[in-house]
Sequence to fold (422 residues):
Amino acid sequence: MKLLIATTNPGKLREMREVLTPLGFEVVSLESASRALPEPVEDAATFAGNARIKADAYARARGLTCVAEDSGIEVDALDGAPGVHSARYAGSAGVREERDRANNAKLLSALAQRGPVARDARFVCAICVADAAGQVLFETRATCEGVIAPELRGEGGFGYDPLLLVPELGLTMAQLSPEQKNARSHRGQATRALAAWLATYARQQAGTPRS
Amino acid sequence: MKLLIATTNPGKLREMREVLTPLGFEVVSLESASRALPEPVEDAATFAGNARIKADAYARARGLTCVAEDSGIEVDALDGAPGVHSARYAGSAGVREERDRANNAKLLSALAQRGPVARDARFVCAICVADAAGQVLFETRATCEGVIAPELRGEGGFGYDPLLLVPELGLTMAQLSPEQKNARSHRGQATRALAAWLATYARQQAGTPRS
Fold:
């Protein structure tokens, strides 16, 4: 069956395709639509709320079951900021790499202004699946706990990866191999929970309940 | 590692134990505490909110990572009722079987009063995992879609199972074998997503990141 993936990020689309194709799903991207779909306003207060807004809007617009995700970083000493504003924390100008650099710089600067505080933080990923009528079938949310590094470290990953230090490893998420990162990342964890759910969903849609 | 399961329902505890023991977790029940734990007030507007309240409260009270769930039935023509009030929809008197009977009778009667309306409904299960500090590590929510049967059908299951008809099968959840029920139930789906997440969590707690 067809499954619409509500992302325009090629990296996230590839990750999803790798998980979903072996389960027998035909992955459909937003770009495959004959006309551009209206972009919903992601104005929820939580990652889960925004994932729900996207899954619902795109599922109904395309008439397909849709998987949407929303993710970002929460810093305790900044009262949870950047939170749902993570992607555009320092503005929406420039290409992705420029925005990442500006976001990371703004986060370090905001934290420095707080003085000597605990630097606990976490990546959060929320995933939502809605059917063609917009009914939410499944949701999941996972976190990756860490602390904000004193400065950018590592060349891998993207977004805030060079700033989230995994205390047990003494390395930032940008210093891990893709496999190490995926094993502990918020998105890796949420995607595995999604895959476990989708395996059942695929069987049901094929009309062969496991019994 | 130890994992506290925040339920007093022996059936749910057994289901969780079956999933979690093979993953290497030592399942701890609420009853195993040397003194009774203070019961948190489950006053959230959603199943996910109540699961979060329970996971947070019991995790901090016992100093253990805690898995909590909240579940129930939503009926569209009743504006989502009984919803978070499912367990005590018709009051909290009597043993479980008596409450089930009263709840099912009240639901049929409430729906009859609405006249000839669509009988769409769904079971919802939310699961939340919090660590000993009350930090939410993982959440998931799954549904099982159906319609309310004209009358009670089937002897299996519990709660509202005899009233939720699975249209594709023409049977209520109480008419399915335990395996068939588990394959499509809200709790079965959410538990499989939890198990997929816990497999990673177990590896991380053991200090052996998959790489």
Q: What stands out?
A: The longest strand of chain B covers residues 136-148. The mean pLDDT of chain B is 92. Strands of chain B lie at 2-5, 26-29, 66-75, 120-130, 136-148, 164-166, 171-172. Residues 42 and 50 of chain B are 5 Å apart (CA to CA).
